[in-house]
């Protein structure tokens, strides 16, 4: 359909390909971050002493632990940033397909797109997404990490919850406070943000097909 309606169809196809590619990349970061600490994130009564040694830096497997932590931390940051980028890349695609590049490419992002879209199922999807707590968390985390400082990531042992793992520190962004979370909770919640692209993409298909019906 794109090739049939565009003389210069490379630009929309490249935008579509970019959405697909960044989804593949961010899922790589998700799985790598999720699985990197598996051997250290246990929750049984026999692991507290060994986990405490990791925290104190005295474990015989400390080097393996450090490598796993670096892998986790780098990929968690990359995953969150990539999910944020996904929606700006999607905005470029929508701008081309529905708005005929009305928004200047250098200024096109998810917010600018929302301002220019007519009322539709897609606009409702994007409003709901942008208004959600976890999308706001993604935006805040990404901006803090890119422009201010890296949000802390600390391996923790919680004797009350009887669990261990990486905890992402609390931070504030534009007057809103975001509390500390276990990294697995963040990974799963940000994955839900990414999965919203399915509904957005389906409604984009419907609107595009209707436009050229």
Task: Give a brief outline of the structure.
The mean pLDDT is 89.
Task: Explain what you see.
With 213 residues, this protein is mostly helical. It has helices spanning 2-5, 10-36, 48-56, 62-97, 110-116, 121-131, 133-147, 183-211, and strands at residues 153-158, 163-168, 171-173, 176-178, 181-182. The protein has one domain. The mean pLDDT is 89.
Mean pLDDT: 89
Q: What order do the helices and strands follow?
A: HHHHHHHEEEEEH
Number of beta-strand segments:
5
How much beta, percentage-wise?
A: 5-15%
Number of helices: 8
- Report how far the terminal alpha carbons are from each other: 10 Å
Helical amount: 55-70%
Shape: elongated
Q: Which strands sit side by side, in order, in the main sheet?
A: 1-2-5
User: What is the radius of gyration computed over CA atoms, rounded to a whole number of angstroms?
Assistant: 21 Å
The overall number of domains is: 1
What structural class should be given to the helix and strand makeup?
mainly alpha
Biggest beta sheet summary? 3 strands, antiparallel
Low-confidence stretches: none
Helix and strand layout, with pairings?
Layout: H1 2-5, H2 10-36, H3 48-56, H4 62-97, H5 110-116, H6 121-131, H7 133-147, E1 153-158, E2 163-168, E3 171-173, E4 176-178, E5 181-182, H8 183-211
Antiparallel strand pairs: 1-2, 2-5, 3-4
Helix pairs in contact: 2-4, 2-8, 4-7, 4-8, 6-8
Task: Quickly list its features.
213 residues; mainly alpha; two-stranded antiparallel ribbon; 8 helices; 5 strands; 65% helix; 9% strand; elongated
């Amino acid at each position: 359909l794109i090739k049939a309606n565009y003389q210069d169809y490379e630009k929309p196809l490249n935008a579509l390909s970019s959405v697909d590619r960044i989804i593949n990349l961010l899922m790589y970061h998700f799985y790598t971050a999720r699985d990197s600490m598996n051997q250290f994130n246990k929750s049984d009564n026999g692991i507290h002493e060994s986990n405490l040694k990791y925290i104190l830096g005295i474990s015989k497997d400390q080097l393996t632990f450090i490598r796993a932590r670096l892998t986790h931390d780098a990929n968690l940051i990359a995953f969150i940033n990539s999910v944020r980028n996904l929606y700006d890349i999607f905005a470029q695609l929508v701008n081309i397909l529905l708005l005929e590049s009305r928004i200047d490419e250098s200024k096109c992002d998810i917010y600018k797109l929302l301002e220019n879209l007519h009322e539709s199922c897609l606009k409702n999807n994007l409003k709901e997404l942008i208004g959600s707590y976890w999308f706001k968390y993604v935006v805040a985390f990404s901006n803090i990490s890119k422009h201010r400082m890296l949000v802390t990531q600390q391996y923790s042992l919680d004797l009350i919850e009887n669990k261990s793992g990486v905890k992402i520190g609390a931070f504030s962004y534009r007057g809103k406070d975001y509390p500390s979370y276990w990294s697995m909770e963040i990974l799963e919640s940000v994955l839900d943000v990414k999965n919203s692209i399915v509904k957005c993409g389906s409604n984009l298909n419907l609107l595009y097909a209707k436009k050229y019906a």
